[in-house]
């Protein structure tokens, strides 16, 4: 069996996402499994080239995982023709110049979401990549989670009948950082550094809605900063300028209404950190990260409103579990494999930079809706 080695420049691998999900759980995991098998029988191994700002951190990381190549010089990594793919998981504000340089160097590009801080920049990246003839993609990991794969199975099997609405609940308490360390990086809470829950989460909601239910046509949102002061990684107090909760209504093609709460200032009384409740004429389902439960119209109870009596129906027990019926790999790894097949054997990949840009457009429209107190209609783009 023949084997090929593909150089992948990975920028931002000292960060949370870049390290755990992309380097360890995806790229190194693909190699540990013997490489990616292609349709023609060839196996492709990945040669990560770590790029970052700190020599010490890169050297430590490379040593820990026995990785030969690392550098603080992005241009040098991009100049090597053996490196065909550029991956970016830097802070969002650093993304555009680095991805632009990679496109100019003729690399295929795969980037974390949001692909840029503004729709104009995100769309410019998509157009530049098309013009350069390189393959491009944006991380849309939630679509590859078991819970959402099961939800997709229900949709594609016609379970819901006509889908009426989607209600999403996402969030958990992010500690302020004074008496307990914050569990997310502080840049997330500063607008000037590309932070904010709308810019972080609306791109996720956009691809979930677009790929599972239909085009997002309009948004009405209220973004707020509930906790105005926080403490950073060094224990220093700072003003939290970015929104830490957003309450949004998304109108979809076909009349479906989605309503999603996103919050870093709520406490969890749910089974999972995100849940989507979908109602259709024939049945309903609740999908989380891993599980998906459903209730068919034939099993739907008929509650009668009477506040004088305690609830008699065990409502949660009246739902059934969608079985796994498959083995689910890590969602980030599954999408990496799809992107590699897109680059290497022209496989389908709908998660391109244009799709990513539409996600940024939704975030921008959400912030505008909140600032101006009105509903924003989204322009149709490719
Ligand atoms: N797909 C997802 O579910 C998901 C989840 C969280 C974050 N993200 C995205 O991943 C990206 C990274 O987020 P993270 O949570 O890993 O952040 P992080 O702060 O943990 O990591 C940021 C990385 O960017 C590098 N960097 C480059 N320039 C920088 C600068 N000027 N200031 C600070 N760091 C700089 C850091 O060295 C580090 O490697 C963001 O774009 C974020 O939106 C995606």
UniProtKB/TrEMBL annotation:
Entry keyword annotation includes Oxidoreductase: yes
InterPro entries for the chain: Gfo/Idh/MocA-like_OxRdtase_N, Gfo/Idh/MocA_oxidoreduct, GFO_IDH_MocA-like_dom, NAD(P)-bd_dom_sf
Keyword list, A-Z: Oxidoreductase
Start and end residues of each GFO/IDH/MocA-like oxidoreductase domain: 149-285
Keyword Cell wall biogenesis/degradation (UniProt): no
Every Gfo/Idh/MocA-like oxidoreductase N-terminal domain range: 50-137
Coiled-coil ranges from the UniProt annotation: none
Record-stated family: Belongs to the Gfo/Idh/MocA family.
Protein name: Gfo/Idh/MocA family protein
Organism, scientific name: Actinomadura gamaensis
């Amino acid at each position: 069996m023949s084997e090929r080695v593909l150089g992948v420049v990975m920028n931002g691998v000292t960060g949370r996402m870049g390290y755990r999900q992309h380097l360890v759980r995806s790229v190194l995991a693909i190699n540990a499994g013997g490489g990616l098998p292609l349709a023609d029988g060839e196996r492709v191994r990945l040669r990560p080239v770590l790029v970052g700002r700190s020599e010490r951190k890169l050297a430590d990381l490379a040593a820990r995982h026995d990785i030969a190549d690392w550098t603080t010089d992005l241009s040098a990594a991009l100049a090597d023709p053996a490196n065909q793919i550029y991956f970016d998981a830097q802070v969002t504000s650093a993304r555009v110049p680095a991805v632009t340089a990679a496109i100019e160097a003729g690399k295929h590009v795969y980037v974390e979401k949001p692909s840029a801080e503004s729709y104009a920049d995100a769309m410019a990246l998509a157009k530049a990549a098309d013009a350069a003839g390189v393959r491009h993609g944006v991380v849309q990991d939630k679509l590859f989670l078991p819970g959402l794969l099961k939800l997709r199975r229900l949709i594609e099997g016609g379970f819901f009948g006509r889908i009426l609405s989607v209600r999403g609940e996402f969030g958990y308490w992010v500690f302020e950082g004074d008496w307990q360390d914050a569990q997310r990086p502080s840049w997330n809470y500063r607008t000037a550094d590309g932070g904010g829950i709308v810019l972080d989460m609306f791109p996720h909601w956009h691809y979930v809605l677009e790929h599972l239910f239909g085009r997002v046509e309009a948004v009405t949102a209220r973004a707020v900063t509930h906790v105005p002061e926080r403490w950073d990684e060094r224990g220093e107090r700072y003003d939290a300028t970015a929104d830490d909760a957003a309450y949004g209504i998304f109108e979809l093609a076909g009349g479906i209404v989605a309503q999603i709460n996103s919050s870093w200032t709520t406490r969890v009384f749910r089974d999972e950190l995100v849940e989507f409740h979908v109602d259709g004429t024939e049945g309903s389902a609740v999908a989380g990260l891993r599980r998906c439960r459903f209730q068919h119209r034939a099993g739907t109870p008929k509650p009668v409103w009477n506040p004088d009596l305690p609830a008699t129906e065990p409502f949660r027990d009246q739902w059934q579990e969608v079985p796994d019926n498959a083995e689910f790999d890590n969602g980030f790894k599954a999408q990496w494999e799809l992107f590699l097949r897109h680059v290497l054997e022209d496989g389908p990949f709908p998660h391109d930079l244009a799709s990513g840009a539409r996600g940024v457009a939704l975030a921008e429209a959400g912030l505008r809706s909140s600032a101006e107190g009105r509903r924003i209609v989204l322009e149709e783009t490719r």
